[in-house]
Design goal:
The complex is a heterodimer.
Chain A: H1 2-9, E1 17-21, H2 27-37, H3 44-50, E2 57-62, E3 65-75, E4 82-90, H4 99-114, E5 119-125, H5 129-137, E6 141-146, E7 158-164
Parallel strand pairs in A: 4-5
Antiparallel strand pairs in A: 1-2, 2-3, 3-4, 5-7, 6-7
Chain B: H1 22-36, H2 40-52, H3 60-72, H4 76-89, H5 94-106, H6 110-123, H7 128-140, H8 144-157, H9 162-174, H10 178-190, H11 197-213, H12 217-227, H13 234-247, H14 251-264, H15 269-279, H16 284-297, H17 303-306, H18 314-331, H19 336-340, H20 347-367, H21 382-398, H22 402-415, H23 420-433, H24 436-449, H25 454-466, H26 470-477, H27 487-493, H28 497-509, H29 513-532, H30 535-544, H31 547-558, H32 564-582, H33 588-595, H34 600-624, H35 636-652, H36 659-663, H37 668-682, H38 687-700, H39 703-716, H40 721-736, H41 742-756, H42 761-771, H43 776-792, H44 799-811
The chains are: A alpha+beta, B mainly alpha.
Chain lengths: ~180, ~800
């Protein structure tokens, strides 16, 4: 009937993505997320430090549910000042919807606003093709390979992906 | 509480029997002024000066004023002392009587207070202040005749004050003498006293209320139509109009009014019901049309999309449900199950819901659409699948299919482990299946995800209490309560009754009777407070002219203890008191006797236990008087107010509730009866009330009252299993009793004959068992009686028969009960 059709028309799903801060109240959500998404387990100290990261740590909300997150830190090794992405991920059912892009865009924004970073870099497990193609799309290049980077998972080798901070231009939104 | 300082200043004339010399007169005037301005310490200083004069050391009115100010500072005993002295010294002073009355009122001795006021009035017949205080107390105590009298006197004294008229009218309303009330209001309106637009509007609506209550519907409608333009509360106006038109049978006009109301608010279920009544749709289509209109008109309204589900059937229902569920699942509406719950009494609809939901799930999991036939533009985000899983889990949980429910909720948790609602559902599944411990764990897992969310915190606390982890629950609640005092105290102050009830139930399960009773009494006190709190509204509502709300408030307060919270607390308290009567706890002094025989170690243990209990009680007293040890970060002013307030509350209470005292009471049945009485008056429609009453009366051996309870219970639910036990019990008790007076035994035997409807008790019992062969509680009741009889007179049933009954229980397929059958051995 016509009425039923009119009711069905309004059934199109909503899709909203937002970023939120990591606080002592919701840190457990980040922890649950990371435990499910990453093969590496992070310890209590990691999460204690995350609370001090400010804008370097964010939660990603899809339709008001936490589905992803990013944690970075300032790395001063090798006589350079670099932004290191420790974790960036999203729950499996929510991938390939631009959530990773939103998270990475945030990292770029932080980097640009700071203005004093040399580059952004991260580690990716050599078998993780999805992640490799994702970062390469955004202009990250494989710098080197670190053998036996991971202690408890196989393959234990990881690529170091890096992107020069100077390459960040005003709009970085790349459609997935 | 004495929040408003009652005025004493209406007659500054000194007592005729004890006149003061000029110096003291000035001081006394200062005393009165200090009191009015709440400067109690200063007032006391001046009073002291008067009393230091040796000739005036027992001046009645000064002593009375001193008492009044001491009471305001929380020193109740001293206050009473002084007031009594003052009264003794100057018994013909209306001030002394007035003050004494005020103190009695503050101490909740209302009947005494009324007596004092009356005495004061006798001595000073035109004292308005005393009259007003008396009238407030009379309406508070529902002495309606007295209230009317006093109101009349007030009207005579102050005909220019509009409160006098209003109060007089209301006093007739409360006595249900509508014609008088209406004529007074009319006279008042004619006097054209200064009123604001809102007040005038409220007065019209109040008049209308009187007309409706007195049954003059036509006059009421005419009245509404005449003064429509002056009424500002349009919704009340329309609702009243709609009601009246319906009563008068003017359906089509009523329908128009309800349509207009729906324009204002399409989410009010009452309007839809009334519209249906007015329109009288003959077919399902016509009925549906009412809702279709609203759906088209107001796209965002959710109620008209849901209500038709309750009367549609078959294919129409299926289609409508499908569309509704799609909308809600796509929206991510968490309460979808709750909204559909009302349909679950219909087995066919339950099937349809299940099939639709499972169908959606399969399709969403494979092609991300509600149905494979959907257009690609209707592809759903992953959250739709998530909420569908959530719904299905709740569905199976409700149907008691635990494994299936767990299967789906675990799927949902795998999908999105960060959604708090999923943990709540998982906990609910475990709780329904009987594992309260695991349920509490699940809730806690969910709670930890968002520790800023008070809802999940409370829910988790509740589950903790239900798994008997009381300290943990208190710890959780303290995350959201004020610092400086314990969570239990703060929640008590905030009248958080759900918490106290769950604590009480938990303590009962753990056999900690005293603590459970303490909580029950705390809940009872809240009800006393809620009743007392209406006091200020007697003046406030008159002043603000919000008379409809005022009268409704009085009606609510009259039925206050019919609230389920009170019922739960009362039932629990009664059950515990009955148990304490059957198995009294060992009292303290007999323990002392045993002390001498104990070893040193045991003695030390016992003494330290007592010391801890005393310390706890002392600490509680401290907290009550606001002297917290851990640095309290409050305003000094706030603290003072709180202190004064809690002290005032304390002065109104008889004593602090100590668990040890409560559980060793000498009169458990009397205490139980105190809880029972409001239930008998206000909740006489519930069978449990009468069953509880029976259990008390049978221990007091009051056969006639036992019979009364049984008859009342039978009138409500003849087939109740506990009722059966009581009837058998009563029959046996009557048969066994010999020394009954003839009229009593006659009544008992005739009534029992009617109840039993069988040749004898045994026959009655077997009939009962066979009628209710499929219900475990009934079988247990039926069997228990037999077993008891078997022990007493082993002639009716052989051991074999008894065994067969027990076997029957084991093999029985019990209808919808998850009970583990334990061996009775």
């Amino acid at each position: 009937s016509r009425m039923i059709k009119s009711m069905a028309v309004a059934a199109a799903g909503r899709r909203t993505t937002d970023l939120g801060d990591v606080t002592p109240h919701n840190i457990r959500q980040l922890r649950t997320l990371n435990t499910v998404v990453f093969p590496v387990t992070y310890n209590d100290k990691f999460y204690k430090d995350v609370l001090e990261l400010g804008e370097l740590a964010k939660l990603a909300y899809f339709n008001d549910i936490v589905v992803g997150g990013v944690c970075c830190r300032v790395d001063t090794s090798q006589d350079k000042r670099r932004l290191y992405i420790m974790t960036l991920g999203c729950l499996r059912p929510y991938r390939r919807r631009g959530i990773g892009t939103v998270l990475l865009d945030h990292v770029f924004k932080v980097c640009k606003e700071d203005g004093k970073f040399d580059s952004i870099y991260l580690h990716v497990q050599v078998s993780n093709d999805e992640a490799l193609s994702f970062y390469q799309k955004f202009g990250f290049n494989i710098k080197e390979k670190e053998d036996r980077y991971y202690k408890r998972i196989e393959p234990a080798d990881a690529y170091v992906l890096e992107k020069d901070a100077s390459e960040l231009v005003s709009s970085q939104l790349v459609a997935c | 509480a004495l929040r408003v300082v009652p005025s004493i200043l209406s007659r500054q004339g000194m007592s005729k029997s004890q006149p003061l010399p000029p110096k003291e007169q000035t001081l006394f005037k200062r005393v009165l002024k200090c009191y009015e301005q709440k400067q109690f310490k200063n007032g006391l200083k001046f009073a002291k000066q008067i009393l230091s004069n040796p000739k005036q050391s027992e001046h009645g009115e000064t002593l009375a004023m001193k008492g009044l100010m001491l009471n305001a500072l929380g020193k109740k005993d001293e206050a009473f002392d002084h007031a009594r002295r003052g009264l003794k010294s100057d018994i013909r002073s209306h001030v002394c009587w007035h003050v004494y009355g005020l103190l009695q009122r503050a101490d909740r001795k209302f009947d005494e207070a009324i007596k004092c006021y009356r005495n004061a009035l006798k001595l000073d017949q035109e004292n308005l202040q005393i009259m007003r205080d008396l009238s407030l107390l009379q309406v508070q105590m529902r002495d309606l005749e007295g209230y009317r009298e006093t109101r009349y006197q007030l009207l005579q004294q102050r005909p220019a004050q509009r409160q006098s008229w209003i109060g007089y009218a209301v006093s007739y309303h409360l006595l249900k003498e509508y014609s008088m009330a209406l004529s007074i209001i009319e006279q008042f309106s004619d006097t054209q006293m200064e009123t604001l637009e809102y007040e005038k509007s409220e007065l019209f609506l109040y008049q209308n209320m009187l007309l409706v209550e007195s049954g003059q519907h036509q006059a009421a409608v005419d009245h509404l139509e005449k003064f429509e333009s002056q009424v500002v509360d349009k919704i009340s106006l329309l609702e009243a109009k709609g009601d009246l038109l319906m009563t008068l049978g003017r359906q089509s006009e009523a329908a128009l009014v309800y349509r207009e109301l729906l324009e204002r608010n399409p989410e009010n279920i009452l309007y839809y019901r009334r519209l249906e009544e007015a329109r009288q749709p003959a077919t399902v289509e016509e009925r549906l049309a009412i809702y279709a209109e609203q759906i088209e008109h107001r796209h965002s309204a959710s109620l008209p999309r849901r209500l038709p589900l309750s009367f549609l059937t078959g294919e129409k229902f299926q289609g409508f449900l499908d569309a509704y569920m799609r909308r809600m699942l796509a929206k991510g509406a968490a309460p979808l199950f709750k909204l559909l719950k009302c349909l679950y009494s219909d087995a066919e609809k339950v099937q349809t819901i299940e099939q639709t939901a499972l169908g959606f799930l399969e399709s969403l999991a494979t092609c991300e659409k509600f149905s494979p036939e959907d257009a690609d533009s209707d592809i759903q985000p992953p959250t739709t699948e998530l909420w569908t899983l959530h719904l299905i889990a709740r569905h199976f949980c409700y149907l008691h299919q635990w494994e299936k429910a767990l299967e789906y909720i675990n799927r949902a948790l795998e999908h999105t482990p960060t959604l708090v609602e999923l943990y709540v559902v998982k906990g609910k599944i475990y709780k329904s299946a009987g594992d309260c411990q695991k349920a509490a764990e699940c809730l806690n897992d969910g709670r930890m995800l968002d520790t800023a969310d008070r809802y999940i915190n409370c829910k988790c606390a509740k589950y903790m209490l239900q798994s008997d982890q009381v300290e943990r629950a208190e710890e959780l609640c303290s995350m959201f309560t004020r610092e400086g005092s314990s969570a239990a105290d703060t929640l008590n102050e905030m009248q958080c009754i759900w918490f106290e009830r769950e604590c009480a139930l938990s303590y009962q399960r753990q056999g900690q009777w005293g603590k459970a009773l303490q909580k029950c009494h705390e809940i009872e006190r809240h009800f006393v407070e809620i009743f007392d709190d209406q006091f200020d509204f007697h003046t406030y509502c008159m002043r603000k002219m919000t008379l409809r709300s005022y009268v409704e408030l009085l009606q609510v307060e009259d039925k206050l203890r019919s609230h389920p919270f009170y019922f739960d607390a009362a039932r629990l308290a009664i059950e515990i008191y009955i148990r304490l009567y059957d198995k009294p706890l060992v009292a303290q002094h007999s323990v002392d006797d045993q002390l001498a025989e104990m070893s040193e170690q045991e003695k030390k243990k016992l003494l330290s236990k007592q010391r801890k209990a005393q310390k706890k009680a002392a600490h509680k007293q401290q907290v009550h008087s606001g002297q917290d040890k851990d640095g309290v970060k409050k305003d000094a002013k706030e603290k003072e107010v709180k202190q004064a307030d809690s002290e005032k509350r304390e002065s109104g209470k008889d004593q602090i509730l100590l668990p040890e005292e409560l559980e060793t009471t000498k009169e458990p049945l009397e205490e139980a009866l105190k809880f029972l009485r409001p239930l008998q008056t206000l909740v006489s429609g519930r069978v449990e009330t009468h069953l509880l009453a029976y259990r008390i009366y049978c221990r007091k051996k009051k056969l006639l009252l036992m019979l009364q309870s049984v008859k009342r219970a039978a009138a409500i639910d003849q087939n109740h299993h506990e009722l059966h036990e009581h009837i058998v019990d009563l029959a046996l008790a009557v048969a066994a009793s010999e020394s009954l007076a003839r009229p009593v035994s006659a009544i008992l035997r005739t009534s029992l004959l009617a109840l039993l409807d069988a040749p004898d008790v045994y026959e009655f019992n077997s009939q009962f068992r066979s009628t209710h062969a499929k219900s475990l509680p009934h079988l247990l009741s039926g069997t228990y009686r037999d077993r008891k009889q078997l022990l007493l007179c082993s002639e009716r049933y052989t051991l074999v028969q008894v065994h067969s009954i027990y076997n029957c229980l084991y093999e029985l397929s019990v209808e919808s009960q998850n009970v583990r059958i334990c061996c009775w051995g």
